[in-house]
Structures are given as structure tokens and as C-alpha cells.
Amino acid sequence: MAQVRILVNVDATPEERRVALAALKPEVTSLNTRRTSASLSQDENNLRLEIVADDIVAARAAANSFIRLLDIALGAREVVSSVVG
């Protein structure tokens, strides 16, 4: 069976990338299982999440989890910024 690869690119400011990388790094590190692995990186304008899985079910589960975590991290950053100023 062929592996499934999902690549998610998010256009993000340097601050958003810093926050997201710090928040998701422990999750990416602990995810590496027998069926699924993930990596998180950045370039000049993007945050890049890559998920490689043995099957579509594992890929979808990992993608859903990481996209939700990314949304939470960036949303929390927005709330904190609005409160702190």
C-alpha cells in the first residue's frame, strides 16, 4: 500500500510562525508513531506542516489534529495580543 503525504502551507507572519512552532513542536515530536510521522518547518513567509502516514485514516486523523492545534495556537496568540496590547 502506498504512503499518504499531506503538506499544509500557512501564510504567517514571523511572530505567528514563532508561536506556532513553539506550541506545536512537542506535539510533532511525540506524534511519530508506527503509522504516522509529522514535521513542522518554516520559510520566509510560510509555516509548513508535513504529515506522512501509512494509510488515509491515519493521515486524516493527524491532519485534523494538527490543523486544530494550529488554529488554537494562532487564535490564542491573537487573544493575548489584544489583551496585552
N-C termini distance? 51 Å
- Which fold name is given in CATH as the topology? TATA-Binding Protein
Helical segment count: 2
Tell me the series of helices and strands, N- to C-terminal. Answer: EHEEH
Core attributes:
three-stranded antiparallel β-sheet; 3 strands; 85 residues; 27% strand
Structural description of this entry:
By secondary structure, the protein is α+β, with helices and mostly antiparallel strands. The chain has one domain: TATA-Binding Protein, CATH 3.30.310. 55% of the residues lie in helices and 27% in strands. The protein has two helices and three strands. The protein has helices at residues 14-31, 56-84; strands spanning 4-11, 36-42, 46-53. It has a three-stranded antiparallel β-sheet with strand order 1-3-2, covered by helices on one side. A hairpin with a 3-residue loop joins β2 and β3 (46-53). α1 (14-31) runs antiparallel to α2. The longest helix has 29 residues, at 56-84. The radius of gyration is 14 Å and the shape is elongated.
